Amino acid sequence: MTDGDSIWINKNGKKTEVRLACIDAPEGKQFWEQQTTNRLAKISPLGQKIELRKIRLYEIFVAGQSVNLQMVQEGNTVVYLPYLNNCASNTNQYLQAEEYAKIQKLGFWNQQNPVMPWNFRQGKRSNQPTYSPFPVNTSNLLKNYNCPDFTTQAEAKEIFNKYPNDPFDLDRDHDDIACENLP
């Protein structure tokens, strides 16, 4: 592990650094940097079989789940707009995951004036306004869903599928069935 947005892998017997696509992580000595690095190490541990999808940089999957997207949703990394075009198939998921982390004040977003990693790298230590060139539908993100909010399991499954890693804990027994007590 080098930081929160790159890892070292053994590819054909050669040690290779892999930079994660679509995201940017806090830099050394920046708020939340160590926690981000530790979290990436935990969800993509040494010896774990991973799937790489090259899209200029890499999207990493462990057990079919996007590590990149999980890091954003948990507030460990932020969406890096210059690389987001490489993630065109799931751009909206990245933006919604980041908005969710902001609203919940998770990880990196649990500070008064976050300095974006790209600004920190350039020596800008005060908060710089960020922008999103894409419209983000936040109406569904403002709600903390619970099983009683749904009348059928199909409704719950729709939200469960929309948000990777089950942030609302709709699948408490982790069998990939959301709110299984509903009709």
Q: Please report the number of helical segments.
A: 6
Strand order of the largest sheet: 4-5-6
How many structural units, i.e. domains? 2
Let me know the number of strands: 7
Q: What is the helix content?
A: 25-40%
Short description:
The chain has helices at 33-43, 67-73, 81-84, 91-104, 117-121, 153-162, and strands at 6-11, 14-19, 23-24, 51-55, 57-62, 65-66, 78-79. With 183 residues, the chain is of the alpha+beta class.
Descriptive keywords:
alpha+beta; 183 residues; 7 strands; 3-stranded antiparallel beta sheet
Polypeptide structure, described:
The chain is of the alpha+beta class. It folds into 2 domains: 6-133, OB fold (Dihydrolipoamide Acetyltransferase, E2P) (Beta Barrel); 143-183, no CATH class. It is built from 6 helices and 7 strands; from the N terminus they run E-E-E-H-E-E-E-H-E-H-H-H-H. The strands form 3 sheets. A 3-stranded antiparallel beta sheet has the order 4-5-6. It has a two-stranded antiparallel sheet with strand order 1-2. Strand 1 (6-11) and strand 2 (14-19) form a beta hairpin. Helix 2 packs parallel to helix 4.
